[in-house]
Amino acid sequence: MSYVRKEIDAEEIRRQQALCAQIFDRVTADGRRPLAMVDTYGCQQNEADSEKLRGYLAEMGYSFTEDEFQADVIVVNTCAVREHAEMRVLGNVGALNHTKKNKPDQIVAVCGCMVQQEHMAEKIKRSYPVVDLVFGPHELWRFPELLLRVMTGGKRVFATQKDAGAVAEGIPQRRDGSVKAWLSIMYGCNNFCTYCVVPYVRGRERSRRPEDVVAEARELVAAGYKDITLLGQNVNSYGKDLDCGVDFADLLRMVNDIPGDFLIRFMTSHPKDATEKLFRTMAACEKCAHHIHLPVQSGSDRVLKAMNRSYDREKYLEEVRVARAYMPDLVLTTDIIVGFPGETDEDFADTLRLCEQVRFDAMFTFIYSKRVGTPAASMPDPYTRADKQRHFDMLTETANRISGEKHREYEGRTLRVLVDGETGKVPYNLSSRTNGGRLVHLKGDPALIGRFADVKITASNTWALYGELAEA
Length: 472
Ligand code: SAH
Ligand code: SF4
Hints:
- There is one protein chain.
- With 472 residues, this protein is an alpha/beta fold.
- The chain folds into 4 domains: 10-159, 3-Layer(aba) Sandwich (Rossmann fold); 181-260, Transcription Regulator spoIIAA (2-Layer Sandwich); 290-407, Transcription Regulator spoIIAA; 414-469, CATH 2.40.50.140.
- Helix content is 37%, strand content 21%.
- It contains 14 helices and 21 strands.
- The protein has helices spanning 10-27, 44-59, 83-102, 113-116, 118-127, 143-153, 198-202, 210-222, 248-256, 276-284, 301-306, 313-326, 345-358, 385-408, and strands at 7-8, 35-40, 63-64, 73-78, 107-112, 133-135, 157-159, 167-168, 180-184, 186-187, 206-207, 227-231, 263-267, 291-293, 331-338, 362-367, 414-422, 430-434, 439-443, 452-460, 465-469.
- The strands form 6 sheets. Strands 3-2-4-5-6-7 form a 6-stranded parallel sheet, with helices on both faces.
- Strand 12, helix 9 (248-256) and strand 13 form a beta-alpha-beta unit.
- Helix 1 (10-27) packs parallel to helix 6 (143-153) and helix 10 packs parallel to helix 12.
- The termini are far apart.
- The protein binds S-adenosyl-L-homocysteine (SAH) and iron/sulfur cluster (SF4).
């Protein structure tokens, strides 16, 4: 695989910003403040991308709304990982016919991973005339240019060329919260797990330069963010395309060295190259949360091989042992796919056994979804949907029981949490997270939001802990 790293010139982003200014003049000419809505599906990377779309839209003069009937521009940022997300997108985009009928000048854009697939872009072209603009993840940096073309050209615009992807610095961002922030450190994926569409739609792995990542982390800390999540499809291969001698563990240290009281999180780590150095670094960096999301996908060596995951059950278990030796308080979460083509009862029993052995704090479980163009899509898949559902229900039950048991172990303990928002409920009106990322509902003054606090855990269930502020 030969991929030559491509960087979008800073000059080019400035040109896009100049186009934002042109759009600003157009859309605010009547003295009105136009409204935009950005609807995001899928992973944290998509959330981060939507913050860039909002950054550009804000420079164009748009304010934001959640009401699709009010919006002058609607951008739907889509996911392609499973069919369910695609169906939701198509249903919701179809429903925009009603809003556009009321507001004929409304512009509807659909972007992200789903439309980077040729068959989906075609489907939208043919069956969803309500959509004016379609662009894939590789074109996000030139969203202003594409939107202006729709505004001035009177024609639908489709920009979904196949591409290995580039790195663009300097795109404005409008972040969602004020306590937690996403920070992309790399884009794309080279792993080609046989079930997964991500490498086809997000392109090859490319890392941002360490100095750019650190500069952005510094800005976040200066702006008061207290919880920074470094994002990549596989953060463990960070830096491999840069040849600058900085790997992911080194990057963690560099971010950890930024002065201030904040937490560093990251996702996702691929077990094939999570190293002892990574766990040692996590343990040594006082700002690094003791949480790792390490998707195992299956506990069966046969299935792992068919998935092209490049590790086996034993290697995974050994990693967990090493990680826990460095961090006895480590919170470990995972993703599991049930019903991969040809997965037998025995394979599934291996997965259940692995879960009992590891005792994950939380598990994200998915029923296998066939993705066009992936190798798994043409593997024999004799098991029925009902078989898969039965396994899925058993796995969820196990996951919930273990999470509940693990949560119960917190009761009576006093922990430092970061208060991150209001729940809108009584009496537990605040939400917070432990260092390991477990959710804690609290009673307290909203002035605590954005602060660390010591909390005594008084109750728990499968999904959350409940606590009270500890006496100072
Ligand atoms: N890069 C990340 C995962 C991105 S997708 C990683 O490798 O960990 C998030 C999760 O969705 C995956 O971990 C996997 O469990 C699930 N997933 C991906 N493709 C899927 C498919 N075709 N069907 C069902 N689940 C899938
Ligand atoms: Fe998909 Fe595998 Fe890449 Fe994760 S590592 S994005 S599951 S191909």
